[in-house]
Write a structure and sequence with these properties.
Layout: H1 3-26, H2 29-35, H3 40-50, H4 63-79, E1 90-107, E2 111-112, E3 118-119, E4 125-135, E5 153-157, H5 167-172, E6 177-181, H6 186-201, E7 205-206, E8 219-222, H7 224-231, H8 235-243, E9 257-279, E10 284-294, H9 313-335, E11 342-349, H10 357-364, E12 373-379, E13 395-399, H11 406-420, E14 423-425, H12 444-447, E15 453-457, H13 476-495
Parallel strand pairs: 4-5, 5-6, 6-8, 10-11, 10-12, 12-15, 13-14
Antiparallel strand pairs: 1-2, 1-7, 1-9, 3-8, 4-9, 9-11, 13-15
Helix pairs in contact: 3-9, 4-9, 9-13, 11-13
Bound molecules: zinc ion (ZN).
Length: 503
């Protein structure tokens, strides 16, 4: 070997050692050691249970949801995590569901059909026997001349938004209820009725108790066909009296109809729960990293043939099992003396599909103060590949990382470049994107309280909210990679010297 060659070898060796020092400085071998313990087999085993038919789609408040909660709780317990809600793993979340009850209208000759001839959405108890129905045109003052409403039902025809129809005035003139025909045509009414039917069947839930009474409590929406049956007049004639000022006098000549009616929808209390597992940190334990995923889903389809169970394997079984796996790895690290500096809350929440209700409840009744909550890493759907990335490298949509903390955004990017090398797709990060995803999963209830978040997501696919969102469609290799990404990001956030700063 000549001198010059020896010299260049030395330079080469210098550069090799220089770069490997830099790499070693970047990659934390302890983090790597635990990151490698995120196992595909665990994710698969757990998801096969969470998304199995036995859990019936895990609808909020249902038996299947309770089974999922019990499974998650047992997992946390087995890992030795603490139940942080006065010793319990459950944070009870009381929800209200409006359920459809009695709904009937009878004329002397016909029985009208619910969701076909009429729709009642209110929460009052409304009933009348052999009650007169008085036609009041569009309900405005001019149409009411010489019309007596006390104890009667007023019937309005007006192609207007319900808020622009003077129902309050009619009620204050003594009407017991107001029937409104405001749909453009029969088709529009049918579409509206079907929508309301579905909404009642899915038992939409709220955190606040819905007020009974109110304006909607006394309003019954009717179709034009129902109007003809009730008043025994041609609908088009009646409509022309309402809309043509020259025909106003004809309104009071319309003979009253007679109906018996009864309506009673009710509010049902639904008890659900967020499931929390807490791992206490070492020297910065007052500060908290939160990892979330919603473990409930939309339950079963109410009608149709074939498979009716919305398994929600991707939505959000995938996020749920990722949280379980992160809990496992961090608990193991702690047991081996490598526990995180900051505390970590592993939280699977309820009611996401009903409007982010479980995470909203947590943010309004936080178990740990929100000011000591450093970050929320939220995982909602990470087990699939969307059509846009069909033949592309492994990816994940990253949403929200740059909204409140540049430091978080940089950390998220850097962690991925060191450990996981996924393509970060920021398509949905745009707050003006029509899908509005920044506000559409549980992280939003942290972000709106100024807590930085990252939301991990795989995109919209053809099985979204369908019974075909099944375990066998999950790409477990990719789910494992993405779970590792969240793990390394959480590890860095939990162990770095300085808490990440908001901008
Ligand atoms: Zn979801």
């Amino acid at each position: 070997m000549t001198l010059i060659n020896r010299f260049s070898v030395r330079i080469l060796l210098f550069f090799i050692s220089f770069y490997s020092t830099v790499l070693v400085a970047q990659e934390n071998p302890i983090a790597r050691q635990y990151g490698e313990q995120v196992l595909l087999s665990d994710l698969k085993d757990n998801l096969s249970i969470i998304a199995s038919d036995a859990l019936e789609g895990r609808k909020t408040g249902s038996r299947g949801q309770k089974m999922a909660a019990a499974f998650i709780r047992a997992h946390f317990e087995e890992l030795g995590l603490a139940g942080p809600v006065d010793g319990s793993y459950y944070q009870n979340v009381p929800l209200y569901a409006i359920t459809a009850g009695n709904a009937m209208i009878k004329t002397n000759t016909a029985s009208l059909q619910n969701y076909k001839d009429f729709v009642y959405t209110g929460l009052s108890e409304l009933a009348g026997n052999e009650t007169e129905v008085v036609f009041v045109g569009d309900g405005e003052e001019a149409s009411l001349e010489k019309i007596e409403l006390t104890g009667k039902v007023a019937l309005v025809i007006a192609e207007k938004n319900i808020n622009d129809i003077p129902t309050e005035a009619l009620l204050s003139k003594g009407a017991k209820a107001v029937m409104v025909c405001n749909s453009k045509d029969e088709k529009t009414f049918t579409a509206y009725a079907n929508r309301m039917k579905r909404s009642f069947e899915s038992a939409r839930m709220t955190l606040k108790k819905p007020a009974s009474g109110g304006q909607m409590g006394s309003i019954i929406f009717v179709s034009s066909a129902a109007v003809e049956k009730i008043l025994n007049e041609k609908f088009d004639d009646l409509k022309s009296y309402s809309s043509d000022p020259k025909k106003l006098k004809k309104i009071r000549k319309v003979k009253t109809g007679i109906i018996s009616y009864a309506f009673h929808n009710s509010i049902k209390l639904v008890n659900s729960e967020n499931v929390l597992g807490y791992l206490e940190g070492t020297d910065k334990k007052e500060e908290l990293i939160v990892v979330t995923a919603h473990y409930d889903h939309i339950g079963k389809k109410s009608e149709g043939a074939g498979d009716l169970i919305n398994n929600g394997a991707d939505d959000d079984g995938s996020g749920t099992v990722a949280v379980l796996e992160l809990a496992k790895v961090f608990a193991k690290a702690k047991a081996e003396g490598n526990g995180p500096k900051r505390s970590i809350l592993f939280m699977t929440v309820t009611g996401e599909e009903m409007g982010l209700l479980g995470s909203q409840y947590y943010s309004e009744n936080p178990v740990f103060s929100l000011s000591s909550t450093v970050v929320d890493l939220n995982i909602d759907m990470i087990g699939r590949r969307d059509p846009e990335h069909k033949d592309k490298p492994d990816y994940v949509y990253v949403i929200g990382s740059d909204k409140l903390s540049t430091e978080l955004h940089q950390l998220s990017e850097k962690t991925n470049s060191i450990y996981t090398h996924l393509d970060f797709d920021y398509t949905y990060n745009d707050e003006n994107h029509p899908t509005n995803l920044y506000k559409r999963s549980d992280h939003w209830n942290f972000a709106k309280n100024n807590i930085p978040i990252v939301f991990y997501f795989d995109g919209i696919h053809e099985d979204y909210h369908l019974p075909s969102d099944e375990v066998d469609k999950i790409d477990f290799e990719l789910l494992t990679k993405r779970t590792k990404l969240v793990f390394y990001t959480a590890w860095e956030l939990a162990n770095r010297e300085q808490r990440i700063k908001n901008d």
